[in-house]
Amino acid sequence: MSTAEYIARRALQLAPLLLLLTVIVFLMIHLAPGDPAQNLAGPRATDADIERIRDAMGLNEPIIKQYGIWIGKMLTGDFGESFISHRPVSDMIVERLWPTALLMGTANIVSLLIAIPLGLIAAVKQYSLSDTVLTTITFVGISIPSFWFGLLLMWLFGIQLQWLPLSGMATPGEPATAISVLQHLIMPAGVIAFIYTAFWMRFVRSGVLEVLTQDYVLFARSKGLPAKRLYVKHVLRTGLMPLVTLIGLSVPELITGSVVIETVFSWPGLGLLTYSAANSRDFTVVMALVVLASIAVVIGNLLADLAYRWVDPRIRLT
Amino acid sequence: MAVIESRVAPIGTNSLPERRFPSFRQRILRNRPASIGLIVLILIGAITALTPLFIDADRVTAIDLTSQQQRPSVERPLGTDELGRDVLVRLLYGGRISLMVGVGAASIAATIGVFLGGVSGYFGGRVDALLMRLTDMVLGLPYFFLLILFASLFRPSVLSLTLMIGMLRWTTMARLVRGEFQGLRDRDFVLAARATGRSRFSIMFSEILPNAMGPIIVQFTIGIAFAILAESSISYLGLGIRPPTPSWGNMLSNAQGYLFLAPWLAIVPGLLIFITVLSFNFLGDGLRDALDPKLRR
Hints:
heterodimer, A: mainly alpha, MetI-like fold, 15 helices, B: 2 strands, disordered N terminus
């Protein structure tokens, strides 16, 4: 079956998942204690006022109908308005997309550029000093709490040494040039990159190790194939396969993975939006973000699937 | 320590050198990070567990506005926080909570995973397909976000938070156990048990399961590491354990505002999270190496 057919088939399989998710989110909101109309009206509203608001918000309709209305609106891109700021949620999300994309994109690319060669080295020189050092760094990376690491860097580079700005994407009062954005970007992206590198390096190392034990590698070596060509061209391609799947599965994290770090550094992206919305109980925003996140997960799984099939010639879509 | 000696010598030849297969205990202790991790964990576990015997629970929330943000001193070995509370006391009590949530969540994940994975792996066929579908669906949910939503709606207690975090990770365990059970179900002792007419569940849980315990324990240990990180992250965001109840995570979020004045408030709780998680990861990795049947060294 062709690629297009495969994608269509998988998408169909994943659609009920999305549906299930919207149901879960919707139910959670409605089962929660507290009445949104009352919250909106404030402590001094009369019962009549609250009823009026409930009607206006459509809260008196049967649940199924409310659910249907919500889904319908989402499909047309209307995610409602924030309880707090009354701005359309879609606007709020769109304006936060770029900062998060910049942050996560940079972090991911940097991690890949570092993790692949280092993982390769660690595997090839297994049990050597370099391997031990790299493996230790890996353990540190997967164990360190990201927010703590961020705070440490903030303290060291922002307060003690004063080399880098402390928070946000730009300093108020100063022009937002590319350089200043870069300065603000270094620490948050650095934290994320370090942790990702640690996770990915592991996978590269184990993937490559698996390949290195294969007979055909020994054969190529004994044939006289120079080491560099062997490793980069042949070993790496196969050894990277597990990593490719992992990367595909990390696609959703482009949207969801930045919550903590954005909170630490007040980076104005989707993650910070999630944090503030969740803490101020701005449910329309949180709901929209959860739905967005699940779409991202679905797409990510799909990409991981496709990537795996593409990279492994044995499973080419025939 | 028991060491199995074995001479591999064909009949008629002279003595060959003795081969020594190190015992499990030897292999674990040989792995230095793992043994250090184990010691650290035992220390931390013992200290936090015994804390209530030595330090009154009231001191956790004892606000003393006259001594805010003091540097470490003899009386208050780790100083005080922004409300004058003793940091060391909060650290110890917070450790109890963080560890309880971590171990509890990992246990829940392990229990669900073992059960579902075991059933799936043993019975195979349609049950397997169905359960794997379920697992896929669960994997497709953006759990961290759902956790955030849940936490902001329902203000979770320690118990419900543990439950939610536990639900985050059972799929890895389920996959693992499924693989193990699939491998073991065709072995002789299982066939023998079936031949003697034992009930299937009895076979699963008293015959097969003990043989699969190795990887399960490894995954459980690593699961604890993950759960502790998850809890502290959620608490840092203000959505998990809420002040005044201390948790290593929310102590860090309090400390952020005072990074200029009192940096130790931020350094210490995070350091403890780091050390604990690192120890669990080292331990888990060491266990995995020790259990690996392919003796590499």
